[in-house]
From TrEMBL:
Record GO cellular component, one term: cytosol
KW Metal-binding (keyword) present: no
Protein name as catalogued: Adenosylhomocysteinase
Function: May play a key role in the regulation of the intracellular concentration of adenosylhomocysteine.
Superkingdom field: Bacteria
Subcellular location: Cytoplasm
GO biological process: L-homocysteine biosynthetic process; one-carbon metabolic process; S-adenosylmethionine cycle
Swiss-Prot/TrEMBL cofactor(s): NAD(+)
Reactions listed under catalytic activity: S-adenosyl-L-homocysteine + H2O = L-homocysteine + adenosine
Molecular function terms from GO: adenosylhomocysteinase activity
Amino acid sequence: MQNYDVVNLELAEGGRRRIEWAEREMPVLRSIIERFARERPFEGLRMAACLHVTTETANLMRALQAGGADVVLTASNPLSTQDDVAACLVSHFEIPVFAIKGEDNATYYKHINAALDHRPHLTMDDGADLVSTLHMERREQLSEIIGGTEETTTGVIRLRAMAKDNELKFPVLAVNDAMTKHFFDNRYGTGQSTIDGVIRATNILLAGKTFVVGGYGWCSRGLAMRARGMGANVIVTEVDHLKALEAVMDGFRVMPMIEASPIGDIFVTLTGDINVIDKHHFEVMKDGAIVANSGHFNVELNIPALEEMAVAKRLVRPFVEAYELPDGRTIHILGEGRLINLAAAEGHPASVMDMSFANQALGAEYIVKNAGKLENKVYAIPEDIDMEIARLKLESMGIEIDVLTEEQIAYLSSWQEGT
């Protein structure tokens, strides 16, 4: 394979304009780019990134490049690539990219292996496909890896399972667990962009619809909040008693998925688990039900079971497939069950990804600074990095906050003074 694989380099100019537009909404990352250009923390290091190829990701790649990294980028999902952005990174920034929107699974993993041919010292993942491929197929390269970072809930779950089994062979920072990531990216970013993807794919009115949200983690909380704000009647399904209780106290109806299935108009899963919507759920859904997923992998929907149930399937709109069942009912699957916010829309707003990718950039720098000192396990982003990103974000918004006085600091650290 050549040193890149994108659909068409002639798309590069349109990608450049969109990357610049996103940059305007990413002041934290912009300040990191300026510092990295001075300090060059990644000088002499090769980096492979497996991320959604979007305008925001492009600005992260620019930050790593400014820091001296020899970086290569591949897609973390077959439907999430923005082809004009991929072309621009190759043409304007000379960053090798292996990503084509709509690529099949064979091409997807061919691209991951092309990125690993770069012999990286650092990995940057969104879903852990890069890391798992290294551990399963290219173990001879593991000794070359200093460490990595992981962007998403699904990836962190996989990596912690690897660490538990003593299979993880280098340290990884769980960027997803940073408060400036999951509080904002997962809640506000996923909430808004998932609604955006559903509406772009279907052009339906949400007001008055029964909207079923699978799970009540940070991503699901954001979606439930936004769907209610659009006038939908929201039902939450959960397997965790505490999260289910929180959803009830937040004013949502909570019930098992099998009870929600006959009454829901729209279903979206965001759990990181498999078969959240299964055959027995499809069997009782109403005619015209719309089903989507905004978790990282499309396994949240048992699409193979639906394929077996259906007597016909056809594309009725871009990213909308209608499955006709023997009794005449039709169930609509959006975006092949893949991340609907990236399959049918543009993913999170840049202002949210500003914080997430600041965590990625500073997390990678932390890995380099602590090379050889970290164990082969999953680490949380250090609190001081999290707080610095929050400070920079507030500063960029022109917002100031109070500072503790010496008296207040002394009071908080004492125990003698009571009622």
